[in-house]
Queue: 2 jobs
Job 1
Amino acid sequence: SAKSAGKDQFLFFDPVMQSDLISMHQTENELRIALENNQLEPFYQAQVDAQGGLIGAEVLIRWNHPERGLLAPAAFIGVAESSGLIVPMGYQVFAMACTQLVAWSGCEFARKLTLAVNISARQFEEADFTARIASILSSSGANPELLKLEITESTLARDIESVSLKMLELRKLGITFSLDDFGTGYSSLTYLKRLPIKQLKIDRCFVRDVLVDHDDKAIIVTIIALAATLGIDVIAEGVEEQEQQALLVSVGCESFQGFLFGKPESQEVFEQRFTAP
Ligand code: C2E
Ligand code: MG
Ligand code: MG
Ligand code: MG
């Protein structure tokens, strides 16, 4: 009706919403420039084994914004997704990860370090995803066995036949897969068996209260048992306390990531921390 249309219109011109639209539009334009001007910088967060030994790192993007300083993904991933810029951004991050792997290949601390790169569902479903990844791999000379793609259950929820085909093609190249934020989406257990998944990444939300919440502990124990049955590795994310890690070790978790072992760090800081005597 005219009345509700009027109401919608009023809502549309709400000054708060309008300024949200302007700032979204502005963020999108600035992000486009950021991609061209190398303002995106990969940070690295350590992944360790039960003894605390470095086994890998997750690549987490930061934006060196010329006016606003260093921005975390929460400030721009949403706009990147809705504008589609997440696709070129994703390739840029993957290429930077490959370049870093090659640069670290001579360093003792990083010899067998795997780098985990986040891939959005939007990027994964691009028709030429496999070809683009293959081309970046070959032009960089990075060892695909050291690259892990972090996908989420939302990626699997798309056309499963084509997702499955793509994952198998990438696996043939040597790439491995980790299922990020595991337990928060709707995974069919059938997919876990069918798809070439190397690792389940237990979401931070189960780890946070694991010491006091019996349900969270039960969920973690169940995920670890399921993974063991299927021959899949497990890593826990968001480990902040020694006691959390001790409990996770006691129920069979073998890899860990979280502030207890280091925050996401610039390449320089990460390198320094692990090469220092
Ligand atoms: P994610 O992939 O689940 O990454 C883990 C997030 O948890 C990171 O936030 C990390 O800093 C944070 N974290 C790690 N350990 C702890 C901990 O012990 N405690 C707490 N409270 N937080 C912890 P960050 O870097 O802000 O990234 C947020 C999300 O943005 C990521 O979640 C991922 O979904 C997305 N993202 C980051 N970089 C990229 C990228 O290059 N490409 C894509 N597509 N997404 C990315
Ligand atoms: Mg991740
Ligand atoms: Mg995660
Ligand atoms: Mg998460």
Note: Residues 15-36 form the longest helix (22 residues).
Job 2
Amino acid sequence: MNKKVLVFAESKGSVLRQVSLEALSLGKQIAGQGELIAAAFGSGADGYVEALGQHGANQVWTLSDDRYNRYHSDLYFHAFVQVIQETNPDVIIVGHTANMKDVAPRIASRFGYGLITDCTGVEFEGEEPIYIRPIYAGKAFEKKRFTSSGAMFITIRPNNFKVEPSPTLPATVPFQAEPVDLQTVIREIVLKSTGAIDLAEAKIVVSGGRGVKHPDGFEPLQELASVLGGAVGASRGACDEGYCDYGLQIGQTGKVVTPDLYIACGISGAIQHVAGMSNSKVIVAINKDPEAPIFQIADYGIVGDLFEIVPLLTAEFKKKIA
Ligand code: FAD
């Protein structure tokens, strides 16, 4: 294999997203002996070069401009187009994140590229990558390949690809963005408090449903999540009741998560919820109803009151971690 792969290194705040490193590791596999290029935008871009090099990037295109510190559809689109025109990649890989879900179809359409979204795996038939993605709300998987010529554009779901360090000393290519005629203007950014750890990238998620019964019912879940170094999520039932913010919702109309461990507390297991968490590596369900559908997909089930069980688990984990 001898391909030129471009990865967009997305950051949140001043931190490089884990999925960007996953994208680089996959990019390295696909590039083979070819070139692995990363692009980073925002005033922190230069600070990411070393980490990107540690994960195989041969070249890092940096746009050090504070207007790019936060995602803006038009700005990112035009800067991304510039990098593609300059580098002419065979394959483009980005995270399947809210921002990249916005910009990827625009780019693919602008250049007439094929786009395979939300990939959770890749297989090789000879040198040709075959991309695996979930369909029917995670009930089945399909395998897709590109048949057209032109660059192949894929988005990858966070937490599904191994991060493999592959140290290089990348060349840095600083560039300035061409002036953009903005179609949209961001007037205000309202930050919702959804916890320090990004839910979509968390390795452990403790989720609460309508069974928590009250906003305060999330406190024991929060405590368990903190002890485990995880994030708190929720079902729509809990969000609809006003127990927590919709930013925590997991499922078909919420976030899709694939942590190593998902602990569902007081969640019945409706299909729309399961669509957002069924690919978690290990699922633990705590529910007082032994017939709750969540037990059908759980690896471990605990029948009982979450207000008794969650504090017991927290206490046990505290002992183990201390
Ligand atoms: P319930 O179904 O009410 O379940 C509560 C559970 O808590 C019960 O199983 C009960 O036995 C248990 N329980 C109660 N008290 C305790 C206790 N003390 N200890 C232990 N267990 C207890 N839902 C989502 O989650 N995400 C989505 O993205 C989503 N999208 C949707 C999109 C559409 C178009 C539609 C129609 C629905 C969608 N829903 C979604 C809603 C979904 O159908 C369910 O209504 C919702 O998931 C139910 O939430 P729940 O499991 O918290 O509540």
Note: The mean pLDDT is 94.
